[in-house]
Design a protein that fits this description.
single chain; Dihydrolipoamide Transferase; Chloramphenicol Acetyltransferase; 3 domains; 7-stranded mixed β-sheet; 22 strands; 26% helix
Length: 444
Amino acid sequence: MPQMGESIVEGTVSRWLKQVGDAVKRDEAILEISTDKVDAEIPSPAAGVLAEIKVDEGQTVEIQTVVAVIETAKGAAPSVQATAAAPTAPTTPAVIEEVRAEPVMRPPEVAAAQSGDGGEGTAEDRLRQKSTPLVRRIAAEHEVDLGEIPGTGHAGRVTKKDILGYIETKGVAPIAGSAVAVSVPTVPSGPATAVAGRGGEFTHPVVDSWPGDRVEQMSRIRKLTADHMVMSRRIAAHVTSYYEIDFTKIAEIRAAKKGEYEQRGARLTFLGFIVKVVAENLRKHPILNASVSGDTIIYRQDINIGIAVALDWGLIVPVLKNADELSLTGLAKRMADLGERARTKRLNPDEVQRGTFTVTNPGTFGSYIGAPIINQPQVAILGVGTIEKRPKVITLDDGQDVIAIRTQGMLSLSYDHRVVDGADADRFMADVKRDLEGFAEGAV
């Protein structure tokens, strides 16, 4: 299992694209994995035959776990033994152990040592200390020392299940000011099931299915999204402001420049203009480009805008790094590239991390406007409603009011009222509105 991101310590095998006995080519996608950062197709590190699958679909394992064996030479053994020691075995980005005449495998102890932070102590100590951010967050909220908890993970590492069980057994309450547990009433039709959420637990009602219903298990990305959304609503004080924008001038610029941009390999969309203006104004309003850490505010130096992309199997947010430094052409090309690779599961782990502000565009599907949930640990998210021609009252130069056809759209800003005051949010949105409605053609 590869480490698909700096803080990732485990991954889930979502789907095997090849079966035992299938021939595989080098760099051919062989399976899909999911982590809490990204879904990805994993290529084969070598050509050969898939000799053994060690981890079933839906199973979650730690990084460096061998999940399959590829036979690359005639007469090679069909599997490897976990006891074989090979401290010098090369690490590949794929999760497949390559088998030749003398199949070997790096033992878990070696994998742990290589994935440590280089500090003192045994590999087991380093792996135990390197718990997931979620486990450390729960421990901090309940003032629990991870060293007191007997871990059931590899090398005694404390897992989420371990710490939640410890808290429940000891009756530990969260410290003042931290996230608190939320109880959702159960429905009469079934028992309640405790579901672990980030930073605590919430009670999830179990509902009976009826004849003719189709029941499907949530995908990993759907469960992670649900967990993230519940956590965000729980810890952030959500407020949403709505602004109507006259996009008529931008619509005229798009009509005039569309062909020119297509020749450059870029699509000139309304969203590109919006992201450009938002990026420029985040520098002027740094509180919207911040994060809350305990009782401190982190003002981000980088302006990295996440663009929510709806997929058939869920939602993912690739990030435009240093968006304020990109031209409109650069933004258009980068957005198209990230969107395409998100839909084909070819994003790199770092391309879905370190976002500082998010833009979501439900207007693509015809939504007038919505109140999006903040993408933690950010403090604000912009929603874009559908942009279309609508009647509007305008005042002519001579003072006469008339009804005219204008290209209109709604923008909504959901922000965390713990640190963003209404005046801060409205000043930001007023500047965004002004810059969109007065967009200079020379800036294209």
